[in-house]
Amino acid sequence: MSKILHILASVNETVNVFELKPKRKYTEPKIYTGGIDVSKWSKYSNDQKEKALKKQWFVYFSYRNPKTDLLEKQSFIKGGVNHYKTKEERLEILETYKRNLSRILKDGYNPYDSEDVKSEIMSVKDAFAFGLDLKKNMMNDNSFIRFKSRIKRFEVYLESKGFTHRFITSVDKKVVIDYLNQVLDTSSPRNRNNTRTDIRTMFQLFEDNDIIPSNFVSKLKLLKAPPKRNKSYSEEKLEFIYEYLKNNDPNLLLFVKFVSYNFLRPIEVCRLKVEDINFKEQTLNVKAKNKLVKVKIIPNILMEELSFLANYNPADFIFTPKGGPSDWEATDDNRRDYFTKRFKALKDFFNKKVKDGDKAYFVLGKEYGIYSFRHTFITKIYREMRKTLSPFETKSKLMLITGHDTMVALEKYLRDIDAELPEDYSVLIK
Predict the structure, then answer these.
(1) Chain mean position to CA 391
(2) How far is CA 390 from the centre of its chain?
(3) Distance from C-alpha of 198 to C-alpha of 151, rounded to nearest angstrom
């Protein structure tokens, strides 16, 4: 007996030196491949291969039962692998299961602490269904529709890569990065970032519910994605557009005026119902995203055009494809997209006129949209107020009009739209 072993044994006379080695808690996971050695696959006949593929393939392991103190075989882990008909597909999936199982066993996973292995490791399909079912109750309808759309596209991608019947733990960092790169190639950095955010949110839900060990997506970096900037309209463009809409689409003109005079975002205008207008007090209830209803005054310049709405059903949406108040079964996003396309028809008309050589018109590029009217009129009011007020006084009064929550948010917005311009500095150059 070695000296150190003798010392260890002498600590307690009852110690048996042959029992010093702790018992294994589990056996390393192994793969069952239908009863044949896949390393010699090429040597088997086609009949032998076909017979093996007709059998169930799986990962198996044993774990020491805390009650009997014996190593007991656990439930076989198949995870849908037997839907695949080739040796290569099955091995690729089972190797992933084996690797992930080995990792969680090493990290302390104990099958006797839970009902069974399958409850711990969901398939991709089941995990996504579970996640979407939970998120549906955690998000408003419009946000969930966008979230579900991106997650479903990711799920379709995973299906195309053979993950339909695999465990969710087989979706690793490389798989997500490859998908995000594909999104970037076919769209924009901003859409890639939004997709990454939604996948991160889903995988955080998986982590919180012990479906995956950790949310690796949160470590993936966001790309720089400069926001799309809408330009303000010049006085000439503004007058021309207003005149055109007055003669050709007065309903869309009224829509634009809510953006111009009440400084609403297009999607907020789409939510407006007749009941949101208080004709007596001349106020407007605005439903902002994820916020309580805000009350804004309606300036006289706009109120004068709204008296006809008092005759309609209070529950009617003010702006609909019917050209006037009506019911409209659609999401906020679809409503906004409808009016965006309607305004695009105006832009297309102008741009075609310019292309045909009509100098009375001007080009309206992607930087001009309905949102541009909000920038235009906030700039107009800011510059008009600055003629008699200090910058701080102007911004303090402007906050009440625009609805910005903080001075910092308003100042950033004003910088983004170049509302404040310097005086002529020619004298400084001479």
Answers:
(1) 38
(2) 41
(3) 7
Residue 4 pLDDT > 50:
no
The kind and range of the H/E element at 63 are strand 62-64
Buried b (16+ CB within 10 A) or exposed e, 4-17: eeeeeeeeeeeeee
Determine phi and psi for 246, rounding to 5 degrees.
Answer: -60, -40
370's tokens: 């309905």
213 neighbors 207 (Cβ within 8 angstroms): yes
Indicate the pTM of the whole model: 0.60
- Check residue 290 and give left, alpha or beta (phi > 0: left; psi -120 to 50: alpha): left
CA distances from 231 to 152, 178, 410, 416, 418 (A): 34, 35, 17, 10, 10
Beta strand 294-297 pairing with 62-64: unpaired
Cα separation, 236 vs 186, whole angstroms: 37
Q: Does 235-416 carry CATH code 1.10.10?
A: no
Task: State the Cα–Cα distance between residues 127 and 146, nearest whole angstrom.
Answer: 19
Q: What is the C-alpha to C-alpha distance for residues 159 and 157, in angstroms, rounded to an integer?
A: 5
Strands 30-32 and 283-286: unpaired
DSSP character for 273?
A: B
Note whether 223 and 189 are within 8 A (CB).
yes
**Would strands 294-297 and 283-286 be described as parallel, antiparallel, or unpaired?**
antiparallel
Q: How would residue 69 be classed by pLDDT, with cut points 50, 70 and 90?
A: confident
pLDDT digits (tens, 9 = 90+) for 318-351: 999 998 899 999 888 889 999 999 999 999 999 9
Measured CA to CA, the distance from residue 308 to residue 243 in angstroms comes to: 21
d(CA 124, CA 3): 55
Distance CA 312, CA 324 (A): 9
Tokens of 367: 């930087």
For residues 346 and 249, is the Cβ–Cβ distance under 8 A?
yes
294-297 β-sheet, strand order = 277-278, 283-286, 294-297
| Alpha carbon distance 52, 56 (integer Å) | 8
d(CA 207, CA 131): 11
In this predicted structure, the answer to whether residue 273 has a pLDDT above a threshold of 80 is yes
CA 62 – CA 347 distance, rounded (Å): 69
Sequence ranges of the domains in the chain: 25-114, 124-219, 235-416
Give the separation between CA 306 and CA 214, rounded to whole angstroms.
55
What phi, psi does 294 have (nearest 5°)?
Answer: -100, 145
Q: Which residue has the tokens 């955690």?
A: 138
